[in-house]
């Protein structure tokens, strides 16, 4: 039976998600409806993607009995309330990162999902790429010895992008880009608790961060050096340093290859000629298929990104924001 999707919002990431779904057979995935704040936006989106139903207002997705799961691609401050509404109406949820604005909201959302026995996943698509699964095996094999350090940078020129800049839109690099570098070091260090965190950053006139640089120390003399920026294009790669060698991971947030001391591991993306808004967005197909497999198996959380990991990521982002000085209304 096909997993029946309701799409919440009609923005660029939702376009890419629905487009990536088209790489799967219709017998596995169907988009039933799309909802937006303006009916015209939903109707245009539905027409361009061949979606049967379009709604004004997100509650209509929650109330639609033909929908199994909601994909939430709204702006960051809306994630918590919309995801909560979907869960309380019996819908599974795949919500774009960050799952919520802070750890408190994330814990509450996880509790609601567990209470209702529903699947909830933060849409960190990185975790679903085949390259990540192979990278974990390579690290566990000990090919580079004991991992001592992770370096990751993630930056683009995004100063004119409102959702990155404005506080009311949940702006700043920590929530938008930081979640990716944080989840990477979390993956490599297997969710260890840091012993100390040092961070600096620069705030814009709106009170959100244009850049951050942080050092995370872990037991066993392990260190992560993480950088995010909306001011310039960065190398956007990760380097894992071990006692016996290093692993380089280009495009670490949508990884299709990594280089070990022995060889380069490469993975082909699904083939498509369709246009996407963002880099390697066809890789969203890995995420949607993983979600389907989890729900078919009766799981309420993903083994690739557990609820505990999402809570830890929210805690890490709260820590960075506190150190840099970014405060959102949701924190009060």
Layout: helices, strands, pairs:
Layout: E1 3-8, H1 12-21, E2 29-36, H2 39-49, E3 53-56, H3 59-63, E4 69-72, H4 79-88, E5 92-96, H5 103-115, E6 120-123, H6 130-141, E7 147-155, H7 162-165, H8 173-188, E8 196-203, E9 209-218, E10 222-229, E11 237-242, E12 245-250, E13 257-259, E14 264-266, H9 284-296, H10 307-324
Parallel strand pairs: 1-2, 1-4, 2-3, 4-5, 5-6, 7-10
Antiparallel strand pairs: 7-11, 8-9, 9-10, 11-12, 13-14
Architecture overview:
With 332 residues, the chain is of the alpha/beta class. The chain contains 10 helices and 14 strands. Strands 3-2-1-4-5-6 form a 6-stranded parallel β-sheet, sandwiched between helices. A hairpin with a 4-residue loop joins strand 13 (257-259) and strand 14 (264-266). Helix 8 packs across helix 10. The longest helix has 18 residues, at 307-324. The model has no long low-confidence stretch (mean pLDDT 97).
